[in-house]
Amino acid sequence: MSDLILRNDTEASVTRLVLNSDRNLNALSDGMLAELSVQLDEIAADTTVKAVILAGAGRVFCAGHDLKEMTAKRTAVDGGKAGFIDLFQRCSAVMQQITTLPQPVIAEVHNIATAAGCQLVATCDLAIAAEGTRFGVNGVNIGLFCSTPMVALTRNIPRKQAFELLTTGEFLDADQAVSLGLINRVVPAEDLQNATMELAEKIAGKLPSAVKIGKEAFYKQLEMPLSEAYDYTGQVITENMMLRDTEAMIETFINRKK
């Protein structure tokens, strides 16, 4: 196994980012967040990458933040307050990098995704999980309400179910996660990597400029009132229609139908 805490395994037009720090259960440590930010910036600028898979090596997908590292920040003069603010701001920035990334991001989840790890799943555009995977925002069990993970979670699942998870610290199983809309589907563990790659390659086969335009519009229109969303997406789809590649593909489709 590589010594890198974040591996980049690129195959053709699909990049597979692998959280590779099993010693702390792939925690979103200071180092992991820094590596993710750098890699996401590089991917955003790489037009050869059409889709991204985010996976975890070892025992779990991601168990959230590194509590030992966080506790060490308390030795600072301010008791760690500045360090905590910095950590959560950088984590939030990485989550937003995923949302604004031109390429769709698929979470490949196994065993456990808790706290900020669950936030990571909720932030990704798509998610496939292995059978037996559990999801939780269970910081409340140690006296820490998962306030930042709550942002992504409440944009994925109904509010009452989200609030119950946040206040009880209980887990969702994979089937419950599908039914609530947190993930797209569940597959046998041995099929997980193939299933995510199959989905990534299907997306990678589409016109990248159209997918990029569509992903950006998808998130923007969600925050708009209905009439404003229609006005905005009308402009977006017009921009899409003006692309030369779109024009060519539509012509090909019409001629094939003829």
TrEMBL record:
User: Could you confirm whether the keyword Transmembrane appears in this record?
Assistant: no
Keywords associated with the record: Fatty acid metabolism, Lipid metabolism, Lyase, Transit peptide
- Molecular-function annotations in GO: hydro-lyase activity
One biological process term from GO is: fatty acid metabolic process
SUPFAM superfamilies linked: ClpP/crotonase
Q: Per UniProt, what is one Pfam family of this protein? A: ECH_1
Q: What CDD domains does this protein map onto?
A: crotonase-like
UniProt lists the family membership as follows: Belongs to the enoyl-CoA hydratase/isomerase family.
Please explain the role this protein plays, according to its UniProt record. May play a role in fatty acid biosynthesis and insulin sensitivity.
Q: What is this protein called?
A: Enoyl-CoA hydratase domain-containing protein 3, mitochondrial
